[in-house]
Design a protein that fits this description.
By secondary structure, this protein is of the alpha/beta class. It has 11 helices and 20 strands.
């Protein structure tokens, strides 16, 4: 049986930790699994390389940047292969190209187009453990490309899909997916299973255990993921799987907190057709990730619009807003906000989940600025200083510290 194992940057953070990873791999090999291992760069390396590039050039999307960034994963993959070979476990490291990962030509944020598993299959047949440098592929131009930050998760899931692996185990420094951040709510509980849909909401909402794109891909290709810790490999992690594999659907599975948002208020916006379309299509063209949008009813031909974007898109957003000077009287930017979200499959079929959230925050005197909902999520923008209080209050309200969740 074939397993794909993926180790994140902290798991291969220094030579001792690489040896720890080698030990985990050896144990799995001793259980007779065929193994394809994907590694991230040693922690901090990608950031460092990226800062070196910035020293010389503002162009952060060039082919040269990809050549540079891909080196991080090559270092960790080859070191791991050296260690395993030395310790009697035949291994071979592969770059993204050797692993057959073909991408499009959007350098630094390439999308995987196809995977030719020829080299990997051949090496597996000869009994070798394959150590793939994550986060990278090659383009039809023949150059190295990288998949965007956190892209090693994507490499792992894509390989698991292409190779029809029985499981994709993603090792990080946390031992699974929790009902909320245990640093904020010590009573947070580790989930045994969670659906792709819930995981997607949680990861895009700031519970950054897995890269969002990798979960989307897992859902598309039906790849079961286990999120677990390389520092406590004996602890079973959380299975991320399709809804159909989850017998008892939790009303609420988790509370996510995202402090990385800015609220943008546009006041005195001309109330004529097409303005919102223009503003948001300009933002989209510049790849600004707009999240929650609220428009109020127009008064005297003027309306106001509120929306949120991630902090890293703030500068781009400010520049775009300048283009609409004529149609907007006032713009304000508020960074001191955060987004609290309640996520759970059971919301599809149960009422009262949303009102519970509003009541809970009201009881704590927390004012909600923007609300948005989807089938399995309620998100609320509140003042940042209430972030932790809000998480704890909601965690308590839905009894998330207990396995049986009626409220
Ligand atoms: N090394 C890359 C990053 O730091 C990719 C990854 O770790 O998944 O973003
Ligand atoms: Mg990662």
């Amino acid at each position: 049986m074939l397993k794909v194992l993926k180790f994140g940057g902290t798991s291969v953070g220094d030579l001792e930790k690489i040896q720890n990873v080698a030990n985990i791999i050896k144990k799995e090999k001793d259980k007779n699994y065929d193994l394809v291992v994907v590694v991230s760069a040693m922690s901090g390396v990608t950031n460092k390389l990226s800062s070196y590039a910035k020293h010389f050039s503002k162009d952060s999307s060039s082919k040269e940047v990809d050549m540079l960034l891909s080196a991080g994963e090559r270092i960790s993959s080859s070191l791991l292969a050296l260690a395993l070979n030395e310790q009697g476990y035949a291994s071979i490291s592969m770059s993204g190209r050797e692993a057959g990962i073909l991408t499009d030509c959007h350098y630094t944020r390439a999308k995987i187009q196809s995977i030719d598993t020829k080299n990997i299959s051949k090496a597996l047949k000869s009994g070798q453990i394959i150590i793939v440098a994550g986060f990278q592929g090659y383009t039809k131009e023949g150059r190295v490309s990288t998949l965007g930050r956190g892209g090693s998760d994507l490499s792992a899931v894509a390989l698991a899909g292409a190779l029809n692996a029985s499981i994709c185990e993603i090792y990080t420094d946390v031992d699974g997916i929790y009902t909320s951040d245990p640093r904020i709510e010590p009573r947070a509980r580790k989930l045994e299973k969670i659906s792709y849909e819930e995981m997607l909401e949680l990861s895009s909402l700031g519970a950054k255990v897995l890269q969002t794109r990798s979960v989307e891909m897992a859902k598309k290709f039906d790849v079961n993921i286990i999120s677990r810790s390389s520092f406590a490999p004996e602890i079973e992690g959380t299975l991320i799987t399709k809804e159909g594999n989850i017998m008892e659907k939790a009303l609420v599975s988790g509370i996510a907190l995202d402090k990385n948002q800015v609220r943008i208020g546009l006041y005195g916006v001309s109330d004529k057709p097409g303005i919102a379309a223009l503003i948001f299509s300009d933002l989209a063209k510049s790849q600004v990730n707009v999240d929650m949008i609220v428009q109020t009813v127009a008064v005297n031909g003027k309306t106001s619009l509120d929306f949120t974007v991630p902090i890293e898109d703030l500068e781009k957003t400010q520049n775009i807003m300048l283009r609409f000077k004529k149609d907007i009287q006032k713009v304000d930017y508020n960074e001191k906000i955060c987004k609290l979200s309640v996520v759970g499959l059971g919301m599809k079929t149960n009422s009262g989940v949303a009102s519970k959230a509003f009541e809970t925050l009201a009881k704590e005197n927390i004012n909600i600025r923007i609300i948005s909902t989807s089938e399995i999520k309620i998100s609320m923008i509140i003042e940042e200083k209430y972030a932790e209080l809000g998480v704890r209050a909601l965690h308590e309200a839905y009894h998330l510290d207990k396995t049986c969740k009626s409220f």
